[in-house]
Amino acid sequence: MSHRLVILGAGESGIGAAILGQKQGYDVFVSDAGTLKDKYRKDLQDHHIAFEEGKHTVELILNANEVMKSPGIPEKNEMVKQVRAKGIPVISEIELAYRFKGDSKIVAITGSNGKSTTTSLIWHICKDAGLDCALVGNIGYSFARQVAEDAKPLYVAEISSFQLDDIKTFRPDVAVLLNITEDHLDRYDYKFENYINSKFRIIENQGTDDFFIYCADDDVIVRHLGNLTLNTNSLPFSMKQEIKKGGSIKGDQMMIRVQEERVSMSIYDFALKGKHNQYNTMAAGIAAATLGIRKEKIREAVKTFESLEHRMEHVATVRGVEFINDSKATNVNSTWYALESMSKPTILILGGVDKGNDYSLIEDLVKEKVKAIVCMGSENQKIHEAFGSMVSSITDTATAEEAVQTAFQMAAKGDVVLLSPACASFDLFKNYEDRGDQFKQAVRDL
């Protein structure tokens, strides 16, 4: 009997897992309760992989030897509960990819904020240094699909806590943990501790040849490390203390020491601006150094990196008013980082689907930097309650176009209009990219 792998959810990770499972000789079946995107349906048909959409047929799922659950499906899903009750092992897509990666190395990056930026920067440094590597995971191409279709000696993977929840043997050679702030608590029974444990699973299988790069200025990480016995090589990074092995920034100088090689450069040469990006750049530089990349290459790549779309992206300056698209800020901490790097009076566009936000985190920055707030969401009550007494005006809008026009009318020359919503986008938009694209279009139409 062949190994029956059932895949719940037919998004990028589900399809990637299906293609890899089939290639490895598994009997694969894909089930999605929703409607498939056309490109994913075509992928399954082209590979002759059995699937269903719009339903979960219980008997076709519960006869599995193993179930791969897409990261978007929560534990409280009825089908998942039945799978668990029957004792069928559940794995994540990165676990499946890991099983068949061969001798390849993995650099895995997780954290509540800055994952995509840091992952892209590490990949950019590796590519510039001539390494044959792929950018995978939460940032586009699924890890499993890459292993199936175009295996590489090195994978740079952005990993979410949801992907770490169902690992068994997944073991990155280099693990990067940027920060841990309250996010996605709806998926962790509203217990911050559960989410912290989930993030730390990135190092649970690491050994003495592996590296663990983490922020020594993050209280949550440091506190949790106090309860752990580490089996890996620690490389902390900090702006507050001298670091013997790892990275630090003192004044305007970044210093990285991993093995014998030392890399130093001025923070003014970083392509990415803002304090949070100095942390991201340190983490990326240390990761590159563990791979033996020469310091000249690291310096050069850090200078030439282009920042990501929808992440503190300068859109245009219209009549002296600058517009910045930070649509990827889907939690309050992301918005904190965005506001922290603002140096001009700011009109802030906030709102969307609130995942249990605590707006008190940004109160001080709002008082200091924000002159008006424009809400863009279907449910704005909480924003009014949090900031009503702090800013001169809060206006509700229902489209990106309306939000941009309202903000522009309020702005004076020398101001900045910042879209940094602190919320998910699913009430008015398909996703944060769609929200950012509509914002940019509205700015161009002014």
UniProtKB/TrEMBL annotation:
Signal peptide: none annotated. Pathway: Cell wall biogenesis; peptidoglycan biosynthesis. Residues 109-287 form the Mur ligase central domain. Residues 310-423 form the Mur ligase C-terminal domain. GO terms for cellular component: cytoplasm. GO terms for biological process: cell division; cell wall organization; peptidoglycan biosynthetic process; regulation of cell shape. Keywords: ATP-binding, Cell cycle, Cell division, Cell shape, Cell wall biogenesis/degradation, Cytoplasm, Ligase, Nucleotide-binding, Peptidoglycan synthesis. ATP binds at G111, S112, N113, G114, K115, S116, T117. One of its GO terms (molecular function) is UDP-N-acetylmuramoylalanine-D-glutamate ligase activity. Pfam families: Mur_ligase_C (PF02875), Mur_ligase_M (PF08245), MurD_N (PF21377). The keyword Cytoplasm applies. Cell wall formation. Catalyzes the addition of glutamate to the nucleotide precursor UDP-N-acetylmuramoyl-L-alanine (UMA). This is UDP-N-acetylmuramoylalanine--D-glutamate ligase. It comes from Filimonas lacunae. The gene is murD.
